[in-house]
Structures are given as C-alpha cells and as structure tokens.
Specification:
heterodimer; A: alpha/beta; Glutathione S-transferase Yfyf (Class Pi), Chain A, domain 2; Rossmann fold; 2 domains; four-stranded parallel β-sheet; 15 helices; B: alpha/beta; FAD/NAD(P)-binding domain; five-stranded parallel β-sheet; binds flavin-adenine dinucleotide
C-alpha cells in the first residue's frame, strides 16, 4: 500500500517527534509513504478564519499536486492539516464561488483540481487498512501496565466523523490496547486543549489544558497519548504556568505513534521521546537496553 | 391507430380543478383539440368535475348523446377514478367504459410553462381517447369476508382493538410475542397528564381480554406466515414452548417458590434489568394470562448447549422441585415443543408498538458508562410501587456513610435523547416531553430532590397537557432550555466531586452551565420495533423512511394500509401517547367491522387470465407471481390464475413467452393505442 505523505509545517518543526515516530512505524507495518513533492501550507487556523477562499486555494494546491502525480490517497497526520484538507474538499463541492476561485488559481500554475483524493488520517489507515490484528502481530515489547489517557483532540472527528465516532472515538484506544496498554476511562477525549488560545488568551486557553492534564492524573494515567501536534504542544509546554495558577499537573504527553514504536521494539531515542518536556517513565516491559535508553532520553 | 370498432361515441371532460389545473393548462384549448379527435361526440371543460353537478353532467350526456365511452382529464385516479366510474354506471354504462387522465399531479402541478403543460395535457388526452375505444365491459367480482379477526401485538392498542371487535360479537385471535399482554403501559406507575395509576386502568382491561369468550389469547406467540387476501387470510401462528401446559396451570405460582434457586438470580426483562427473577417466573403480578413461563436458557433442567436447530435440550439434571410443588395439576411439561396453529381470518390489525431508542448510541450522555445514568423506562420501574424496589428511588451506585442505600438529592432529566437530531432520529417522539414531566413530578414526590429538565422545546399539545406543564412549574421543578452537551464526571469545584455534571448551554440565560446531579434520566425517543421490516413483509405493508408502518393516507386513511383488510393501530405507525393510541385502535377496529359487517368486498376486475388455447404449460409465470395466484393444472397441462388472489401487477403478462396471458384493462391493443395516442400530438 502506498500513500502520499503530507507532513505540513508541524511535523517538520515543533512536532518533529511525530514524523520521527510515524515514518518508521508505518514502514514497519509495510506501509509506504512518499512525501508529497513541493507541498505548501495547508491553510489552517488564521487563513481559514480570515479568508476561506484563499485558504482553500492554498490547501487545494497540495491536493492538485497529488492528483498530478497520480497518487491515490493523501495521508495527513497533523489534525489541523487533516481537517483543513477535508474541509476544502467539502467547500469546493458546496460553494461554486470557492470552486471557481480554486479553478482559476490552479490554472494559473498549470495544475488542476478535478477529483477528491481521499485525505486520510494515520488512525484511519491503521484501523481500516492495516487492522488491529496486524498491529498486534508486530508487538515485541508489550506496553504492559502502562495506563494511557487516550486524547484525540477536537479536529479529527469534528465536524467530519468519517472513520470514528464524533464524541467517543475509539480507534486510538483499540490500537493502544493492541500494544498491551490499558486505557483509563477518559471522557475528555475530544475536549478542547485550548488551541491557539494558550497564546492569545492564556487565562482561557491554559485552563482548558489544565482540565485535561489534571483529569488524566486523577484517572490514574501514566501518560497522555495524542494525535495532534498542537494538543501535544499545549499539554506539554505550560506546566510552570499551570502550577502557578492552579496546581501542578505534570504528566507526560506523547504521540500515539511513539508508543507504537516502543511496542515494536524501537528505542525511545528513535521515537524522538527525548523531545518531550515532561519525560515519560521507562517502561517495565522494555528490555534492559531499551529501558535504559528511555530513561536516558528522559533525563 | 384508428378505432376499428363501429359506433364508438366518446364523451370527454377536462376539469379545471379550480386553479389547480386551469392556472397551468388551457382547459378550453384542450377541450377544443379533443373535439376534433376520432369517435369524440362531445368535449367539455368544467370547473369541478368531481362535484355533484359535474357528475350529473356525465350522466345526462350519456343519456342525451348516447355516449358509450367516457374520458375525464383531471386529478389522480387514486382520488376520483371511483367517483367517475360510479357516475358512468349511474348514467347506464358499464363503469369500465370510463377512463381517467391525470393532468394535475402529472402535469399542472409539476410544470411551470403553461404552453408546454397544455401540450402535455392534449397528448395525454389523445392517448386516453385512442385507448378507451378498446375498453370492454367488465364485471366486478365479490368475495366473502370471513368474520373472524386477528390482532397482532397485545399492548394497549391491541388490547383495545381486540376488545372492541369482541364486544361487537366477532371472534378475535390476539397474538402477543411476550409471555403477557400489556406492552409498555404495563410498566408504568402513573400516566400523564392525569397521573392515574397505569395498572388500575390497564389491568382490568387485560383480565377482560383474558376472560372474554370471543377472544382467543395466544401469548408467547408470533405470526409466522400470512397467505390469502382481504376477507380470506390464512395465518400460521408460532406458539413458543413455555414448558407449562396453559390448560392445566392455574397461576398459583407454587412452582416459583419451590424452584431450586432459592433467590431470584437472573435479569428480569420486565423490570428493565433492575430486578432479578428465577428460571420459572411470571413477568409481573397482574400478567395476563396468569401462566408461568420457564426460561430454558437458565433453567437447570435444560442443557446449556442447544440442539442443532437451536431448540433447548432437556438435561434432567435438576431435582425438579417445581414439578413436585405443582403436584396433581401436573402443569409443567419439559418436553413441550414449538407448535404451529393455522387459523383463517378475514381482517388483521397490526399493533406491534415501538421500542425505545438505545441511549448508548449517544455516548456523550454516559449511559452504560456511569451507573447513575438511567433510561426513562428504568425510572418507570424504579418509581413503581410494584417495581424492583417497591417504589423506593435508590441510586445504582454509591452508599450513604452508614452503608444504607443512597437516594438522589438532585436529578437531571434530559429530553430528546435520540430524537430531533440529524445524527440519530430526526423526528420528535411526541411523548417524551410529557413523560419527562410525569417522571419529574414522581421523582420529586418520591425523593424531594431538586429536579432539572433540560429541553429543546416543551411540546405539550394535548388535553390538559399545557396545564400539567404549568403544574410542574408551580411545583418548583426547574426547566433549562438547551440541548445537553454531555454528562460527565470531571469536577471543577469541590461541590462537583463525586457527582454527575450536566454541561449545557442555557439558551435562555445565554451561557454555558454545569449542573451537578446525583442521578441522570435520559428521555429516550420512540423508534420502530427492531423487526419492523420483517413484520412489514409478513403482512405486505409498507414502512415510511423512518421505519414506522405506513398508513394508506396520512389524513384520510390513517389506520388503513395499502393491503386491503390489514389495518394498523398504535405506536407501530408512529410515536403517540395512550389516548391517541386508544383512539386509533378503536378506529382500526371500526374499519375492520365495516368489512366484516358488509360481509363481502368487491374486487377490481383488472386481473390477468390465461388464453387456454395458447398456453403451452411452460410454468415460467408461476414462480414470478408475487401473490402465489398462479397454479398449474396437471390434467389440462395449463397454468391457471386464481382471480381472487391476482392483484393485477402484470408481471406474468410481461413474462409469458407465448403471449397467452392477458390482463383486463391492460390488453395489448389498449396499451398500444394509448402509446400511439400520446405520440400523435406534435
Ligand atoms: C418511558 C415512557 C413513558 C410513557 N408514559 C406515558 C404516559 O404516562 N401516558 C401516555 O399516554 N403515554 C405514555 N407513553 C407512551 C405509551 O407507551 C404508548 O403510547 C403506548 O405504549 C403505545 O401502545 P402500543 O400498544 O401501540 O405499543 P406497545 O405498548 O409497544 O405494545 C406493543 C405490543 O406488541 C407486542 N409485539 C411487538 N411485536 C410483536 C410481534 N411481531 N408479534 C406479536 N406481538 C408483538 C409487544 O410485545 C407489546 O406487547 C410513554 C412511553 C415511554 C417510552
């Protein structure tokens, strides 16, 4: 199976650990990812809010490039990219004025947007195309005893719930359970992390991050697993401020792909775990060398 | 094709239908055009052909102009074909010399260009003029109606329909799937808006049904097959084994006390799983019939593995203390097998009711996740004096510090669960606002708790309903307008710790609120039964898009179905409360009585028949007939069509390789001349 990989800005920058863990994990599962040539910004957040038409033009160029290259599916791991690319396809369908803006822009750069190439999320590909059983078979270092708060964020299931439930998604739960981890009951799965409010209106944004962190701790989680670079950034970066305003709520947040890699026997370093600000405790099940490395990475 | 017949004299009438047709079709122009067509003796346009003067016009013209064919261009034949056929007959002609053209639904209502709509009307009229020349005189046949009736489903709808028919002296079979009749109503404590005790008004009716000499009550039974046609249905009823002889059981329940299980241990379906029952049980004290049931899935005297066809196998492992206790009555029979009863009835009333929406489908409301989230039906049992707790409202989870059961001090009732939502069911379930308020009243009465209702709109359109809402407001029940976002257990303040928090946008106050409560009640909506599609097929009915059974006409034939002699009543047709259900059940019984007391039905002569000399006996038509109306005559080696069963669908006519099946009113020359007529206009 071959997918066109659209990293977006996060996976090359602040969310580098997501790419570092996603690529080897997918390869390990026999999924071929080919990075989309000459991709550009997806058009997320500010663009979409200010000018939908221009945001759609930016997003659709990526899809048009994939179309030109004859690629069948686009994999968008970042939640914001995933949402914006999907939203663009909906808007092009629903609003003729957006469609004509996109058509005009694409023609001027010798591109064409004519088909809706499926834009997929790694969770979707792992659950639907690879399957939980295939993942289970690859596990060499089960995450026994690891209690995880599965945190999806808002964007991958809302408003377009294509592969999972809008309010109670379970795809990541099922994958992590296949790795041997235990999910804590976590009703805040799709609650807002604060989004960009942590920067623009910290008193509102940080409060939302705090709620997620303290509930994960209260429910006995060792770690929060997420799929979204912005969620991870918010949950990982403001512990000092949160402690000052409310109470300390230190708990590590990692990408689910990092946990997959560990369970497949890859090292903490390979999975970019050292990039986290709140370190994850070494896993009991990891072989001595790995545990040592995890610990080393953590310190 | 020119008529090859002599002396055809056609009268043509085009109806204005007020503005309905005349606004889009130039009726005078159509009449003028038709006047010039072959065989047309007179052609008129008229304001309302279906009115008395319109009908009289047809009759007078038949006599004065010696017409022998009549064509009316107006609305759909579904509406007025019968009217004009009768007028034709009253004028002294065979009614099948009449033909109708639909220029309203098929033309004026669906077009926007008057010129083109007029052209279409002319073409359609031309087709009818050419066709009617080939019409023949036909006779309607009459079929006798078997006066016995079948009622399927023993909820309040089925009970009322069966009683009405039985009191009119008709013999009724009442088939109920569960061990007892009563349906949902039997589970309620009180009923809105009068708060009269449900059992007090229902159970007398139930025992009347059980004792009525005209009613044969078959509980724990289902209809397996229905053949035949209006007035003459043959029905096979499957009677599930209850391992008790209905003739010998006297309902003393000694077997239940004697059961080797000293304590009830198994989930009690009637109490929504809130209570327990034994393997030998009676669903509730007033169950009708008063006959116990043995559940082979848990009874020790049956093996845990079933036979290859799914039938339970006796293990003989138990001491059978029940049999001992039954003694001489000898009513327990572990060898009982499923039994098929064949009955013949003339009319059928389907009253299979509804099921409630599965609240787990809205995970945000926490049913199945948080123990103190309840469905409304569970609360009905919990507040019920004969319920699992004797009417004491005890929380499923949590105890007082002294270990005693905990009572809720605050309760949230969430309306519209699964209803009025594009993601689940779009319809309003109609009874939930009212039953939510009933439960709010009862819960407050039982516990003194603060009760919050979360609603989108309060829908209280019934006699005494708005007054009931006002009464609740006076009682100090809180009403918060807003669709609840989620029920959760994450606390933000010490007061919220250990509570269920309802998060909702209060759309009247204009902000998002968090209301901590001890108990959440989900007012789940009403849905079609899970097996509604199977039942629909069994009785040859239709379902609407939501899956409730479809009435023949939403306003004018609300209890009829598209199959003659089969009626629907109660919540199987759509969400409704008890007063409406009973009214509808009475209406269904009355419609059945119309057929029964008339004694016969007239059958449309549009049936198919075999031209014996041409039939080669190839049998290709036989399996195609959806009504099993075609038989093979072994001695003559020809197919034969039973006219009483034929519905005139035309499948066999089209399929016959030798063209030896003909259908009245749809003969080849009629259809070909109609096609030529429609193409003739240019
Ligand atoms: C929580 C709740 C509270 C309510 N409170 C009130 C109230 O206070 N006042 C009020 O007016 N209304 C109330 N209602 C509405 C009321 O329940 C309905 O109006 C009423 O039950 C409809 O009666 P029914 O006979 O059509 O259907 P049901 O009560 O559903 O009965 C249908 C019967 O048919 C049987 N059946 C189903 N399928 C088959 C089959 N294939 N073969 C044989 N038998 C079959 C079922 O076992 C059942 O016995 C309430 C509803 C709910 C959900």
């Amino acid at each position: 199976m071959k997918y066109s990989y659209y990293p977006g800005c996060s996976l090359k920058g602040q969310g580098r650990a997501y790419e570092e863990s996603l690529l080897p994990v997918m390869r390990h599962l026999g999924i071929e990812l080919e990075e989309l040539p000459d991709w550009n910004c997806c058009g997320a957040t500010a663009y979409m809010a200010v000018d939908e038409g221009k945001a759609c033009v930016a997003a659709s160029r990526n899809l048009a490039i994939a179309e030109k290259a004859g690629l069948q599916q686009v994999l968008a791991p970042c939640s914001a990219c995933y949402l914006v690319l999907n939203k663009t396809q909906h808007l092009i369908h629903d609003y003729p004025q957006i469609k004509s803006a996109v058509d005009r822009a694409m023609t001027s750069v010798n591109l064409k947007y004519s088909t809706d190439i499926p834009v997929r999320h790694p969770l979707d590909v792992l659950i639907s195309d690879v399957g939980v059983d295939a993942i289970k078979q690859k596990v060499t270092h089960p995450l026994k005893g690891l209690k995880v708060a599965p945190y999806y964020g808002c964007q991958i299931v809302r408003p377009y719930a294509t592969f999972d439930d809008q309010f109670n998604p379970t795809s990541m739960d099922r994958i992590l359970e296949a790795l041997g981890a235990t999910m804590v009951q976590f009703p805040l799965k799709t609650k807002c992390c604060g989004g960009s409010l942590t920067g623009t209106l910290p008193e509102a944004g940080l409060r939302l991050s705090y709620i997620i962190l303290k509930e994960a701790i209260k429910r006995g989680a060792d770690v929060i697993a997420t799929v979204c670079p912005l969620c991870l950034f918010n949950l990982d970066s403001f512990h000092g401020k949160i402690a000052a305003k409310w109470e300390s709520a230190r708990i590590p947040t990692v990408y689910f792909t990092q946990l997959m890699g560990l369970a497949f026997g890859m090292t903490a370093k390979q999975m970019g775990l050292q990039r986290g600000l709140v370190p994850m405790k070494p896993l009991a099940s990891a072989p001595a060398c790995c545990a040592a490395r995890t610990a080393a990475a953590a310190t | 094709m020119q008529s090859t017949k002599e002396n055809i004299r056609i009268g043509f009438y085009v109806c204005h239908c007020g503005h309905n047709i005349a606004a889009m079709v130039d009726c005078a122009d159509v009449a003028k055009y038709v006047k010039g067509l072959p065989n047309v003796v007179l052609s008129r346009d008229y304001k309302y052909m279906c009115s008395d003067p319109g009908q009289e016009l047809i009759q007078k013209d038949i006599r004065e102009y010696k017409l022998n064919r009549v064509v009316v261009a107006s609305c759909s034949p579904l509406l007025h074909e019968h009217t004009f056929r009768s007028a034709t007959a009253a004028g002294g002609l065979n009614p099948y010399y009449f033909h109708m053209v639909n220029i309203r639904e098929h033309d004026s209502w669906v077009h926007t260009d008057r010129g083109e709509a007029t052209v279409k009307a002319k073409a359609l009229a031309h087709a009818a003029i050419d066709r009617v020349a080939f019409h023949k005189a036909l006779e309607t046949k009459t079929v006798k109606i078997n006066p016995d009736a079948l009622v399927v489903g023993g909820g309040i709808a089925g009970i009322h329909a069966a009683m009405t028919l039985a009191n009119a002296g008709k013999k009724v079979y009442l088939v109920e799937r569960e061990p007892s009749i009563g349906g949902h109503m039997a589970k309620f404590d009180k009923t809105f808006p009068t708060l009269d005790c449900a059992a007090c008004i229902l159970t007398p009716k139930m025992s009347e049904v059980g004792a009525h000499p005209n009613i044969t009550l078959w509980s724990y039974s289902e209809v397996a097959q229905v053949d035949g046609y209006v007035g003459n249905y043959k029905v096979r009823v499957k009677r599930k084994p209850r391992y008790i002889s209905e003739e010998r059981c006297i309902g003393c329940m000694d077997c239940i006390s004697a059961c080797v299980f000293k304590e009830p241990k198994f989930e009690d379906e009637f109490n929504e799983g809130l209570g327990k029952r034994k393997p030998v049980y009676i669903p509730f004290p007033q169950a009708t019939p008063q006959i116990v049931v043995i559940d082979p899935n848990v009874c020790l005297n049956f093996k845990r593995t079933k036979g290859p066809d799914g039938t339970p196998i006796v293990s003989d492992r138990c001491k059978k203390t029940c049999v001992e206790a039954c003694g001489d009555k000898n009513a327990i029979d572990f060898t009982q097998k499923e039994e098929i009863k064949e009955i013949e009835v003339g009319t059928i009333i389907v009253a299979t009711g509804f099921k409630t929406f599965d609240s787990k489908r809205v995970p945000a409301y926490g049913y199945g996740i948080y123990k103190n989230v309840y469905t409304a039906l569970e609360i009905e049992r919990l507040v019920n004096a004969s319920g699992p707790t004797g009417g004491e409202v005890i929380l499923r989870e949590g105890k007082n510090p002294d270990g005693s059961p905990k009572h809720p001090k605050s309760i949230g009732i969430i309306h519209c669960v699964g209803s009025r939502d594009k993601k689940t069911n779009v319809w309003c379930s109609r009874v939930c606002c009212m039953y939510s308020m009933k439960l709010a009243h009862l819960l407050k009465e039982h516990t003194g708790a603060e009760v919050y209702n979360f609603y989108i709109d309060i829908r209280a359109p019934g006699k005494g309903y708005e007054e009931f809402y006002n009464k609740l407001l006076d009682e100090g029940v809180h009403f918060i307008r807003g669709r609840v976002g989620e029920v959760t257990d994450w606390a933000m303040t010490p007061e919220e710790e250990g509570k269920l928090v309802i998060r909702v946008e209060d759309t009247l106050a204009g902000y998002v609120r968090r209301i901590p409560v001890d108990m959440v009640v989900l007012s789940s909506g009403l849905e079609p039964q899970a097996d509604a599609q199977d039942v629909r097929r069994l009785f040859n009915m239709s379902c609407g898009t939501e899956g409730f059974f479809l009435e023949r006409h939403p306003k004018l034939a609300p209890v009829n179905t598209f199959t003659d002699g089969i009626f629907i009543a109660g919540a199987c047709q759509g969400p409704r409360d008890i007063p409406d259900t009973v009214a509808q059940a009475g209406a269904a019984a009355a419609e059945a009585l119309v057929l029964i007391d008339k004694g016969f039905v007239e059958q449309e002569p549009n049936t198919a028949f075999i031209l014996d000399e041409e039939c080669s006996g190839c049998k290709s038509c036989i399996p195609l007939c959806p009504y099993s109306a075609i038989l093979y005559d072994e001695t003559r080696k020809k197919a034969h069509i039973n006219e009483a069963l034929c519905k005139g669908c035309g499948t066999c006519v089209a399929a016959c390789p030798s063209g030896s099946i003909v259908q009245n009113l749809f003969e080849d020359e009629q259809i070909f001349s109609e096609i030529q007529g429609v193409l003739a206009y240019d």
